[in-house]
Design brief:
Elements (H helix, E strand, L loop, with lengths): L12 H7 L40 H14 L3 E5 L2 H9 L7 E5 L4 H10 L6 E5 L4 H7 L4 E7 L11 H10 L3 E5 L4 H4 L9 E5 L13 E5 L2 H14 L5 H12 L1 H19 L5 E5 L9 H7 L6 E6 L3 H9 L5 E2 L9 E3 L11 H6 L6 E5 L5 H16 L1
Parallel strand pairs: 2-3, 2-4, 4-5, 5-6, 10-11
Antiparallel strand pairs: 1-7, 6-7, 8-9, 9-12, 11-12
């Protein structure tokens, strides 16, 4: 007896990256999504439009990107923004005066800044804790806690947070769980599958992938949340232009092959640096010595292209080292095809008070590397000469 039942094939990630949200143009057959450079749209009658009325509210190029991102994260709804911070701001717009947020004590400096210097002025309170400690997070949750904000891997100490366990903590207390998935990307980690309610991205980084666009995104499975995100997106207007959306769509197509190379290069450099005499510590979850290596392996498909190293050096010596590189570029941001190097204490995390930085382990000798797709031997040679030049 034969089984006549059929099921829809599940497209693999690489296929979704290339095709999700995108079909050849019906009129011309153009394979690439057109850039709809228009601010407004003809209506057939007053209030009778064809799905688009004004490009702050919606644009076909943006729709293609939003559908693509939702598919990559395994979510139902995506919203694109003009920057990662615009996306973060939109999530925080869910909160009201008197609400409480629990978050990590080593989150990205821009996230720390918008929490402390913007939203605290609206009578929203924030508790910064070590989110790798589930029991500690549970202790600081209060009846007013409405949001648990997570990064994993964290920026820049590469700590790994148990998304599934902390999503349960949030839900047990009636709070939402949001995960900034910028470092891992949906190719390596899908927080919605682990119980998170909201995923946030700086599309500027790996999803764009070429250091030529600034954009952000929010993805969710919850139609009610998506409706509110859409309201804030339209009302506040922090939306990306169609060319920006086109660039991210182009970048997403090669995300899998780029991430494979990023991961391979980072793993090799981390292993080499772990034995370097001038390096006191390497922060990379792909190393067996990383305290959360097993957790990372359980919730990530690979360990990413980001790593941090702690040099046996002063603030000034560390600055000399990052300025001495020739293949690595001294710059903020991350996730492009080119390798970047930076000193968090004076660059990406300068907004975090010095005493707080040092208390969580963000030392003056810390160096963050965004490992690109160049040949790994050239990267290793460059780091070796830069460290030697600064510290010998």
């Amino acid at each position: 007896m034969t089984d006549d039942t059929t099921s829809e094939p599940v497209e693999q990630f690489e296929t979704r990256a290339v095709h999700a949200g995108q079909e050849p143009d019906a009129e011309t057959g153009a394979v690439m999504t057109p850039i709809y450079a228009t601010s407004t749209y003809e209506q057939d009658a007053p209030g009778d439009h064809r799905g688009y009325e004004y490009s702050r509210t919606g644009n076909p190029t943006r729709t293609a990107l939003e559908d693509n991102l939702a598919a990559l994260e395994g979510g139902a709804f995506g919203r694109a923004f003009s920057s990662g911070m615009g996306a973060i701001n939109t999530v925080l717009n869910l909160l009201s005066a008197g609400d409480h947020v629990v978050t990590g004590d080593d989150v990205y400096g821009g996230t720390h800044r918008i929490f402390r210097d913007v939203f605290e002025d609206y009578d929203i309170s924030f508790t910064f804790v070590d989110t790798t400690d589930v029991d500690r997070v549970r202790e600081v949750v209060t009846p007013d806690t409405e949001l648990l904000w997570l990064e994993t891997p964290t920026n820049p100490l590469m700590r790994i947070v148990d998304i599934e366990a902390l999503a349960e903590v949030a839900h047990e207390n009636g709070a939402l769980c949001a995960v900034d998935n910028t470092f891992a990307t949906p190719y390596l980690q899908r927080p919605l599958d682990l119980g998170a309610d909201i995923v946030v991205h700086s599309l500027t980084k790996y999803l764009g992938g070429h250091s030529d666009v600034v954009a952000g995104a929010v993805v969710t499975d919850d139609p009610g949340l998506d409706e509110r995100f859409g309201f804030y997106q339209n009302s506040v207007g922090a939306t990306p232009g169609p060319f920006d959306c086109f660039l991210v769509l182009r970048g997403a197509k090669t995300l899998p092959v780029r991430m494979d190379r990023h991961c391979a290069n980072a793993r090799e450099l981390a292993t080499w640096l772990d034995d370097h005499p001038d390096v006191s510590r390497v922060y990379y979850p792909g190393l067996d010595s990383h305290p959360s290596h097993d957790l990372a392996a359980s919730q990530m498909d690979d360990f990413g292209g980001m790593l941090s190293v702690e040099l046996d050096a002063s603030l000034e010596e560390t600055a000399d080292a990052v300025m001495a590189t020739e293949v690595f570029t001294l710059a903020e941001s991350l996730g492009g095809v080119e390798s970047l190097i930076e000193q968090p204490a004076t660059m990406t995390h300068a907004a975090v008070p010095a005493e707080q930085r040092r208390a969580v382990g963000l030392t003056d000798g810390l160096v963050r590397l965004s490992v690109g797709i160049e040949h790994v031997e050239d990267l290793r040679t460059d780091l070796e000469q830069a460290i030697d030049a600064a510290l010998d």
